[in-house]
Amino acid sequence: MRETEFSETGVRIDRWARSLTRAGQVTVKDGRVVLLTSYGREIDSAPAGTVSAGRPWFAGADATVARVNGTRYRLTMPRRPDKPDDATPARRFLEAVRRAGGRRD
To answer: pLDDT tens, 33-69?
Structure first.
């Protein structure tokens, strides 16, 4: 069992116009992408090979879009003021999905 490749809390998860949680968690572990509510309930999960993720041109550096099981989710991850721009959680999430076998849009 490998260690967690990516985990971030405090993530706003929207199913486009509808907010599902403002303090959720996104995890990439053992080749799976898991979206959780702030209470730890699973919103959606899928093998990383079936997940596509990318950064929309209209979004800021803290937002990504992931397609999990055919459903598009907008993930807005908190920015850390003490970290450089290349270490943003959104960028680390995209890299973790790519390394785990997912597609990048």
So the answer is: 999 999 999 999 999 999 999 998 887 778 999 999 9
Q: Say whether pLDDT at 1 is over 60.
A: no
Cα-based torsion angle of the residue sequence 67, 70, 18, 74 in order, rounded to the nearest 10 degrees? 0
Strand partners, 13: 21, 75
Residue 32 is assigned to a structural domain of this protein = yes
More confident position, 90 or 1 = 90
Task: List the domain range (segments joined by +) for residue 14.
Answer: 6-99
In a domain, 53, yes or no: yes
Distances 101 to 10, 22, 26, 28 between C-alpha atoms, Å: 25, 27, 16, 11
Residue 72: which CATH number?
Answer: 2.30.29.30
Residue labelled with tokens 């985990």: 7
In a domain, 1, yes or no: no
Total domains present in the chain: 1
Separation of alpha carbons 12 and 71, rounded Å: 16
